[in-house]
Design goal:
With 196 residues, the protein is an alpha/beta fold. 36% of the residues lie in helices and 18% in strands. It has six helices and five strands, in the order βββαβααβααα.
Length: 196
């Protein structure tokens, strides 16, 4: 019916006027293998007395969530921690795409990617469709887990998110992946790369 609650939502993509903006590199690119393109984004999680912020790093080809972090502030630290974990566990992607929020245009994020040899891509301003896979992840997470129960604090939010992310990566088949789970698609893709 298109009904939606009216309340002030936090803005998670505030640009910083002095940070560099990189071009969007993914237009008409065929993305068909693990670690070719990663995506990062932040969303808010409502809790009883306010909001928490969730960042996720996702492999675009397989939709696998490589890492995530929850924070009570919008500082870039939790984003860089998630990025470092994803790179340590899965290796660096060829390209990392994010929006133009200050967390993703700041020196800590840019330096981490540059030192890992990753090319940087950024969504066009206000173009949520440029990072559609992770936007879809947020919608599913909120509709299937977050909005189903009142989350009272960060501990409960972390537990709910961890359980849902595990389900999403290991048990939830995707039609775009020939009904494979993201974990299965990621592993199969890596095996195919090694065999080639």
């Amino acid at each position: 019916m298109g009904l939606e609650a009216i309340y002030k939502r936090p803005r998670t993509s505030q640009p910083h006027p002095q940070h560099p903006v990189f071009p969007y590199l993914l237009r008409q690119m065929q993305i068909d293998r693990p670690n070719q393109v990663g995506g990062a984004d932040i969303t808010f999680m409502p809790v009883k007395n306010g909001f928490l912020y969730l960042v996720a790093i996702m492999d675009w080809a397989t939709r696998k969530v490589l890492s995530w972090r929850l924070s009570n502030t919008m500082h870039a630290d939790f984003c860089v921690e998630a990025l470092n974990e994803a790179v340590a566990k899965h290796g660096p992607p060829e390209i990392m795409n994010a929006d133009q929020g200050s967390q993703f245009t700041g020196s800590a994020w840019i330096t981490t990617l540059t030192e890992a040899g990753v090319r940087i891509s950024m969504d066009g301003r206000g173009r949520y469709l440029d990072n559609i896979f992770i936007e879809r992840l947020w919608r599913s997470l909120k509709q299937e887990a977050i909005y189903l129960e009142e989350t009272t604090d960060g501990f409960q939010a972390r537990r709910v998110i961890k359980e849902w992310m595990t389900f999403y990566n290991t048990k939830r088949p995707h039609s775009a992946l020939d009904r494979q789970t993201p974990d299965d698609a990621y592993c199969v893709g890596l095996e195919q790369q090694k065999a080639a």
